[in-house]
Design brief:
Blueprint: H1 7-14, E1 18-19, E2 24-25, E3 32-38, E4 41-48, H2 56-68, E5 75-82, E6 98-106, H3 113-126, E7 131-135, H4 143-146, E8 154-156, E9 159-161, E10 163-165, E11 168-172, H5 187-199, E12 206-212, H6 219-227, E13 232-237, H7 241-256, E14 261-266, E15 271-272, E16 279-280, H8 287-295, E17 299-302, H9 307-314, H10 319-322, H11 327-349
Parallel strand pairs: 4-5, 6-12, 6-13, 7-11, 7-12, 13-14, 14-17
Antiparallel strand pairs: 1-2, 3-4, 8-9, 10-11, 15-16
Helix pairs in contact: 3-11, 5-6
Length: 360
């Protein structure tokens, strides 16, 4: 006679599985859905807070093992799903379909911020998220080239249509310029352009919209934080002391406008010789990582100097999608997943969990 298995047994077993980022068990977090038991087979869904969860495989394995240990269980089928939570903030009609807006900034130009933004955005899409990328860098809009989609945009029903490439929607300040002509805008013009790219573009439903900011601090940054609620910001820096000093100013400016810093990325961290594989720290070593630890800000990862990153960006295809098995692509994927975790943590901490007391 087969041993009877109850829902309560399964849920009790699954309480042993903890989300290492949210520090709660997956049952209390409400991740377990669609539980079915048929004789010796147990099936259920684990509905995570992001498809880019860095511990997805770990949670799946631990949940399967926990349920398999129940007497009478012969087979466990675990389906991984995700439902991205939205940033909590002031009610706004702008971008109603966009759940999380993340700014990506730097203290100075030339640190590879746009390359990082493009690769992170595409990496999120590769993990199954609905992603948009706004190139708000009025001084050097480069995303159209990196996405392989220069040229003008279309307008339909009074809304600007974002371009689509590599699984993401994107819009750029570069579409407002003619050829090599610079954008010579005073503050009010920059303010209106950013506002237009946020509210007059048909973004549709997105899990994440990444905004590539101009370097430094200024009108674009203020317009962004005043127009829409941000999930947070990522700071890109090099290990160099000068770059770090200037990046800290951008970081402090964002903090003073109540924007959460989700993490720091160190770009151009080192160079690996293609002949002897020796590591050379051209711009110093570990400066951004050390700074993040001192400031209590998550360090998302370090990216090497790699000619393949530059070649693929110039060719219109970020390395995460053009050379997905390369070491640099893996680094970007890991950074994207670490960022996804920080966004989920920030959203989780912004909501008071309702505590339901079990009857005595």
């Amino acid at each position: 006679m087969p041993i009877e298995i109850s829902d309560a047994q399964v849920l009790e077993a699954l309480k042993s599985v903890q989300d290492p980022d949210l520090h709660k068990d997956i049952v209390s977090l409400g991740f377990i859905q669609n539980l079915r038991i048929c004789e010796g087979t147990v099936a259920f869904d684990i509905n995570l807070t992001t498809p880019a969860c860095p511990v997805k495989e770990l949670l799946q394995s631990q949940a399967r093992d926990a349920v398999a240990a129940i007497p009478g269980v012969e087979q466990v089928n675990v389906t991984m799903k995700a439902e991205v939570k939205a940033t909590k903030g002031p009610d706004t009609a702008a971008l109603k379909g966009v759940k999380n807006i993340v700014a990506i900034g730097s203290g100075k130009g030339g640190v590879g911020k746009s390359t990082v933004a493009a690769n992170i955005a595409v990496a999120f899409a590769m993990d199954g998220a609905k992603v948009g990328l706004l190139d708000a860098d009025i001084y050097g809009p480069s995303i159209p080239i990196m996405m392989g989609q220069p040229g003008e945009t279309l307008i339909r029903d009074n809304l600007i249509q974002p371009k689509v490439a590599h699984g993401i929607k994107f819009m750029s300040m570069g579409f407002f310029a003619q050829g090599d002509q610079p954008l010579i805008w005073r503050g009010p013009m920059a303010h209106r352009a950013v506002e237009q790219c946020l509210t007059d573009v048909e973004w549709g439903d997105l899990d994440y919209l990444f905004v590539d900011l101009p370097p430094g601090t200024g009108d674009v940054h203020l317009t962004l934080v005043q127009t829409v609620p941000l999930a947070g910001a990522v700071i890109v820096s090099t290990p160099q002391d000068l770059g770090l000093t200037i990046s800290k100013k951008t970081l402090r400016m964002l903090q003073e406008t109540n924007v959460k810093i989700l993490g720091i990325v160190e770009n151009m961290s080192y160079y690996l010789c293609t002949h002897c594989n020796e590591r050379e720290n051209i711009f110093g070593r570990g400066g951004a990582k050390d700074a993040s630890l001192k400031m209590g800000i998550p360090f998302l990862g370090e990216i090497p100097l790699d000619t393949a990153i530059r070649k693929n960006s110039d060719g219109g295809a970020p390395i995460v999608i053009s050379e997905p098995k390369s070491a640099s692509a893996k680094i970007y994927r890991d950074i994207a997943r670490a960022l996804a975790a920080q966004i989920s943590i920030a959203n989780f901490n912004s909501v008071k969990l309702e505590v339901v007391e079990e009857p005595a």
